Amino acid sequence: MENLVKKAEKIKIIFFDIDDTLRVKNTAFMPESINEVFAKLREKGIMTGIATGRNLYGVVPEVLALEPDYFVTINGAYVENQAHDVIYKHPFATDLVEEIMTWLKSVHSEFAFVGSDQLRVSKWDKVAEDAIAPVYAELLADESYYQTHDVFQMLTISDHDDKIALPENLAQKIRMVRWHPNSSDIVPMTGSKAEGCKQVLDVLGLTAENMMNFGDELNDRELFDLAGLSVAMKISHPEILEKADYVTDTVENDGILKALQVLQMID
């Protein structure tokens, strides 16, 4: 623990995942201690950021009210600061979107387009609702969305998502990260929350040892490899638990507050 406290002394910015880290995805519960955490970090001069698979539309009001300094969204593909200045964006090429659509139709999967602050689905049905409604509520269907908007990520939507595998022609361009039994994120080969957070570090003139993160799922994997100090929630995916420097309690049991107190970062 002494070594972790020393690492914590170098931290200048902390990135937080949203779902099952800051708040419980399925119940929308966020403990009052999160407001205390952000206020105390601000007093200490430690910056805060959100690092999420959601886009800006999906960053819920109670998280926006925390007034984080940076938003690393769509698994690192779109980054803004608190003033809504765009720090970084990396959309898919239109021909790649069309190639992905052709493949998904061939394997009988519906899909979603993820824009910077909008989502559109190819079809809204029970399968889509089960996966997406807890995060984004009901979405409009618009298969032509990509023709007039940047698409930063796509989602598979099917009741056989675990059987879907990338074809060889796409496996060198994109990768799939499952986040729900009915859905996987489709991201660029080099795309990750870590890439977006690196962009913030560059702007601030900081290094990875100055960064800390809290997370729980596979889309946090690269971030756990990058950060100088990584904390996993108790309910995290086994791979994340293995990568973590420290494992803390659940959202409901004030896990973030407890971890920062143990690491002597706040009182």
Automatic annotation (TrEMBL):
Entry protein name: Cof-type HAD-IIB family hydrolase
A GO term, aspect molecular function: hydrolase activity
Species of origin: Lactococcus nasutitermitis
Domain of life assignment: Bacteria
Tagged with keyword Hydrolase: yes
Alphabetized UniProt keyword annotations: Hydrolase
Taxon lineage: Bacteria, Bacillati, Bacillota, Bacilli, Lactobacillales
